[in-house]
Amino acid sequence: MSSRYEVVIGLEVHVQLLTQTKIFCGCSTRFGSNPNSQTCPVCLGLPGALPVLNRQVAEYAIMTGLATNCGIAPRSIFARKNYFYPDLPKGYQISQFELPICEHGWLDIATEEGGEKRIGITRIHMEEDAGKLLHSDDGSGSQVDLNRACTPLLEVVSEPDMRSADEAIAYLKKLHEIVKYLGVCDGNLEEGSFRCDANVSIRPWGQKEFGTRAELKNINSFRFIKQAIEYEVERQIEVIEDGGRVVQETRLFNADTGMTRSMRGKEEAHDYRYFPDPDLVPLVVSNDWIETVKQDLPELPEAKRTRYQQDLGLSDYDAEVLCAERELADYFEACLALHSNAKLCANWVMGEVTRGLNTDSIAITDCPVSAERLAGLLKRIDDSTISNKIAKTVFDAMWGSDQAADAIIEEKGLKQVTDTGAIEAIIDEIIAANMGQVEEYRGGKEKVFGFFVGQVMKASKGKANPAAVNELLKKKLQG
Ligand SMILES: [Zn+2]
């Protein structure tokens, strides 16, 4: 990237809310039903139908606002955003304009240099989604499905505070993690539940005014967003270096070519003629309501990571991995509640459990080994009933059955041999059979020690207590 220019990025994120019903009517928001089966006069935009705000939507907006350090407006207003499109039967979208529910928030992101940077959030407002157009493959016509019309969205608008594609992605991932932790959005980028538009411009270093920006739309993965921004920055630099001017326009990213192309220019930009919707009363949010929501907020990822490091003594890396998904952290904590060794618990959740889930392509919420059963297994490692290695065998057996660790250990006879007499007997046999190596060891070739440990473990079918084996072997080999 050319060092002559500073990159300026602002992001607008549409967050689809996980409510059971739509924002202004009682229709279901379920995905994948027959077209137009989840509609009523309100979301069909029939004349005379009156919208009523879904309380859950407002509550989710307040939760998101609090989690992103926004102020919650005591009074906010719904406005009509007027434009025509076949998937918008009313001829306007109900949104918020002058008085949104949340304003002046921020998120801190980690920078590449290891520091922190604060990204401002201008506002968060509530709005309804439009329907969906289905175009026939042969070009013979289009149909409209209004099941999605009136489903609730939050639009989270950032300040133009980001200076690289990496910063933009760090901000997006943080916001994504928060809405998923809050349970207000499923966070599925591919299905469009978390959609991002990026405003990108460049300016010579030191210049105060922003350059002309291009808006990148419809990008459905973090990787593509990064690619699209990086491509767009290079494109704008080239335009300017060639003596041209960047024009304000909306551009689409093509994932196949990795390039953006113009969709519509400024001359086609809409004048939405916003005005307050006379069908909806102002939304008044009391302090009591805000306090109640605040009390019920779940622990957020950042606070959780800090707690894992400070209170549980886990590393940065462990805390990062375990807190990436709230469900994984919940599983870890359920196991930890029954077992006090946090590090062992973390290792198993990040190791065997995650490996099993990846292999079988299942989510942690469907993990065949419950946190309770895992805790039962870890207890047997801690009290030296089994070695860590044998525990993996037990774990595999647990994965395919409902049995508890103890039952499997008993049934398969996997109890660790700690009886020194039994171990000594094995060692004596091994030594007698390998006198050559014994001489080598005694002659100073200490590497041979590993060979003996391996032989003893093998002869005991992995059940000999490794610490006891080491200690006894040393004694016997010294003669
Ligand atoms: Zn409806």
Fold topology:
Layout: E1 5-16, H1 55-67, E2 71-72, E3 75-76, E4 79-82, E5 92-95, E6 102-110, E7 116-128, E8 132-135, E9 142-145, E10 152-158, H2 165-182, E11 194-204, E12 214-219, H3 222-241, E13 249-254, E14 259-265, E15 275-276, E16 283-284, H4 287-296, H5 301-310, H6 316-323, H7 326-338, H8 342-360, H9 371-382, H10 388-399, H11 405-412, H12 420-433, H13 435-442, H14 448-459, H15 466-477
Parallel strand pairs: 12-13
Antiparallel strand pairs: 1-10, 1-11, 2-6, 3-16, 4-5, 4-15, 6-7, 7-10, 8-9, 11-12, 13-14
The structure holds zinc ion.
Concise structural overview:
The chain has 479 residues and is of the alpha+beta class. Helix content is 39%, strand content 20%.
Write out the distinct hetero groups bound to the structure.
Answer: zinc ion
- Give the overall average pLDDT: 91
Straight-line distance between termini: 68 Å
Report the portion of residues in β strands.
Answer: 15-25%
Care to count the β-strands? Answer: 16
Q: Which outline best applies?
A: elongated
Give the neighbour order of strands across the main sheet.
Answer: 2-6-7-10-1-11-12-13-14
Q: Percentage of helical residues?
A: 25-40%
Count of helix runs: 15
* Rg for CA atoms: 30 Å
How many structural domains are formed by the residues? 3
Largest sheet: 9 strands, mixed
Structural class: alpha+beta
Q: Which stretches are low in confidence, meaning pLDDT under 50 for 5 or more residues running?
A: none
